[in-house]
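Hi F.,

I've been meaning to write this up properly since the lab meeting, where we talked about keeping a consistent format for the predictions we share between groups. The idea is simple: the sequence comes first, exactly as it goes in, then the structure tokens exactly as they come out, then a line or two of notes. No screenshots and no reformatting. I'm using this chain as the first example so we have something concrete to point to.
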Amino acid sequence: MRSIHVSRVIAAAPGDVYAYAADPDNLRAWASGLARSEVTRDGDTLVVDSPMGRVRVRFVARNTLGVLDHDVTLPSGEVVTNPVRVLAHPDGSEVVFTVRQLGQTDDEFARDVDAVRADLDRLAALVEHDA
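Output, unedited:
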């Protein structure tokens, strides 16, 4: 299994980036690889329509460390853990998202990495616009 760390520097304070990215109501705006619809809450779990079908998402508890790890339960029942960090950077923040290949072909994995990169670019544009 391969992993690739996709990172994006964002010209905004880490706390601002974390607050925006951690808000479930903002997922649809920046994380189209995960959420293509409004978020429905089922307790601590978020339910969204994604490119993979209807999925359930559970983020770690809000924290001061910039950790946005989340488990995505796919329609098949498979659970995919996505490590995400918002780190301080000399130019503001750096978001690092670990993409794991798991059972994907190399082409599927490359498309997944590209989708994450596009999501982080959208996150940067949204947060920098508000900064």
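Notes:
The two ends are 38 Å apart (CA to CA).
DSSP finds three helices and eight strands in the chain.

If this format works for you, I'll send the rest the same way.

G.
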